Predict the structure.
Amino acid sequence: MPEGPELHLASLYVNKMCEGVVFTGQVRKSEVSKSPDVPFTCDAYRITATSRGKEVKLTLTPMKSDGPKHRMKAGQVDQSMDIVFRFGMSGFFRFTTEDEMPKHSHLRFYSDEKPCRVLSFVDARRFGSWQPNGTWQPSRGPCIMFEYKSFRENVVSHLADHAFDRPICEALLNQKYFNGVGNYLRAEILFRLNIPPFVPARTVLEGLESDDSSEKERPVKNENPDKKQKSDRAKQTKVKEETGDLLRLCHTVPLEVVNMGGKGYDPQKQDYSDFEAWLQCYYVDGMKSIRDHNGRTMWFKGDPGPMAPKVSKSPKKKSKAKKEEDHDYTNKKKVAKSRSAGGTKRTAIKEETVTETSHKEKKPETDAGSKRRKTEKKKENSPQDGKTSAARRRKVSSAEPNISGAQTRSGRVTRQSSKNQRENPL
């Protein structure tokens, strides 16, 4: 996910590529995007960009024309517009020719040139968004990179907030206080300070001052021995404070990424090799990873800390174990053995749910059926005429199954009496 350094590099990219370029016409949105339309149409305007934490603002400024001949046409704007972008998981800007416009270009600004060039906001996953006539989100704190003093004061003055009851790795993603910090930055910052990710945030931050002690002037040299000894102790304490000042690293570590450049925004440097070499913890071999309470992967080294999520089985495994406890394992084994080799385990488990009562009810029917089959087989093999046995089989098959034995016997008696009357008439 793009973080504070990436969004600032994006703003630098827009300013560099769009410098001196005149844009024209309507700002166009892709058909699949669910973000709002940008109601801006102008014959000639320029684009500039600024960043703040995890937001980028594009300012569209109409170019004033000289003379009454160049009056604004109907439907065109004569005032500048700010569009605030949030990059989501995969947002970025590209400035290309119209033919080379990238796929997933969801908002497009066209230049007044031939051939035409296009500034595109590209977002493959479509988690990014933009807000026409937008402003910086009020719920976001000062920028960690370019509003450092305000950023420190905002954190130190709100340590009583419940947000700092959480582990430090989760508090660092709270944009109300750490606007610009994301997943890779928190891993690198905590790794450099050797701070376990799942310790209470307040214990790490309490004791830090709103003013950065490193910006104060150092003591003057040529001190007497007693003062020198005291100053040495003070320096040792100061060094300890500097190495443990998390707020300072929240400011300096992102600036290291910005100073590297690249990250896909430098036209002459389109790779990430320098950034990958710069990483010390995030996705680095030998490091550990665990999902925090929000489901975000945290990379670290050593002990995770006392507030680390407990490793638990997945819901499916728990559900399966619970179902198995309700079954009779002995009966299940018997059923599994009675199944054929090609039968599945699921079928065997399903078979065991049949109760013993149902088995007892079906057993007499099975025995009776086998006896009937044996009797019919004997009758078929008896030394009688083939025509007679075939006729009997047809009579049995044509008979309705719900006829009782008594009704059958009465029918036989009736047919015999009618036969005798024909042979011996009165």
In short: The chain has 14 helices and eleven strands. The CA atoms of residues 152 and 405 lie 98 Å apart. Residues 217-223, 235-243, 312-366, 382-387 have pLDDT under 50 and may be disordered. The first helix runs from residue 4 to 17.
